[in-house]
């Protein structure tokens, strides 16, 4: 990854395009990776949720352990280098109060942040998509068949971003986290979590750079804005 990525988030495609059904892999992951690479995304046809930490990419698919994925093209990714500016401990953190705890240390309402939360989690609820060879499967079909798992007393980290509400059609507004445990045996998109004690590390990102897919399919894509917000809320939250 070029050093210029250090102060910004590089994003390929948008959440809106992904929700509208553009799930073809067009972004070469390997070109974006270095030892500090940090982020999340999904694999082609939304067959897996991707977690990127310290240059490693892990794909989480229903019924399987996470496995490395770095040579593939993907339809959506958010990636940056991660050099935390603030690290602090918190108590009694949940999905619902995480933003409030973060606001005690930094003004977040208008900022993009890269955020990592490490803990022994009392409870972690994740989801993973069912794999398919059908590139025509839409996001609603994926969401209806995904596997949800409730994990208890598991140690690991949340990897993700804080996105201001203003940019909610570009990325998921608020927190968007993926989880991977310390042994790389369990991973997925985070639906909820709870921990008695945790360590939060974060870095402000002043710039988000978006590269659009170059395919004719993307150029011809119709995005129904009237339905988009409800789809994003239903699938990503």
TrEMBL record:
EC number: 4.1.1.5
Range of residues in the leader sequence: none
Pathway(s) where this gene product acts: Polyol metabolism; (R,R)-butane-2,3-diol biosynthesis; (R,R)-butane-2,3-diol from pyruvate: step 2/3
Record SUPFAM superfamilies: AF0104/ALDC/Ptd012-like
Keywords linked to the UniProt accession: Acetoin biosynthesis, Decarboxylase, Lyase
A Gene Ontology biological process term: acetoin biosynthetic process
Protein name as it appears in the record: Alpha-acetolactate decarboxylase
Listed PANTHER family: ALPHA-ACETOLACTATE DECARBOXYLASE
Enzyme class label: lyase
Database matches in Gene3D superfamilies: Hypothetical protein, similar to alpha- acetolactate decarboxylase, domain 2
């Amino acid at each position: 990854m070029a050093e210029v990525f250090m102060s910004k988030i590089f994003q390929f495609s948008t959440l809106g395009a992904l929700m509208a059904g553009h799930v073809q892999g067009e972004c070469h992951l390997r070109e974006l990776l270095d030892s500090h690479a940090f982020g999340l995304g999904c694999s082609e046809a939304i067959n897996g949720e991707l977690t990127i930490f310290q240059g490693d990419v892990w794909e989480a698919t229903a019924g399987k352990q996470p496995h490395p994925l770095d040579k593939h093209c993907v339809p959506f990714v958010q990636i940056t280098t991660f050099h935390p500016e603030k690290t602090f401990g918190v108590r009694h953190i949940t999905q619902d109060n995480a933003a409030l705890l973060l606001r005690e240390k930094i003004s977040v309402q208008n900022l993009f942040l890269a955020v990592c939360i490490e803990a022994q989690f009392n409870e972690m609820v994740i989801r993973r998509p069912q794999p398919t060879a059908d590139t025509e499967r839409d996001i609603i079909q994926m969401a209806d068949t995904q596997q949800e798992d409730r994990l208890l007393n598991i140690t690991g980290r949340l990897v993700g971003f804080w996105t201001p509400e203003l940019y909610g059609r570009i990325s998921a507004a608020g927190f968007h986290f993926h989880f991977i445990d310390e042994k790389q045996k369990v991973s997925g998109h985070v639906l909820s979590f709870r921990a008695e004690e945790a360590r939060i590390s974060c870095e402000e990102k002043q710039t988000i750079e978006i590269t659009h897919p170059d395919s004719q399919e993307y150029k011809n894509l119709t995005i129904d804005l009237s339905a988009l917000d409800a789809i994003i809320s239903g699938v990503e939250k």
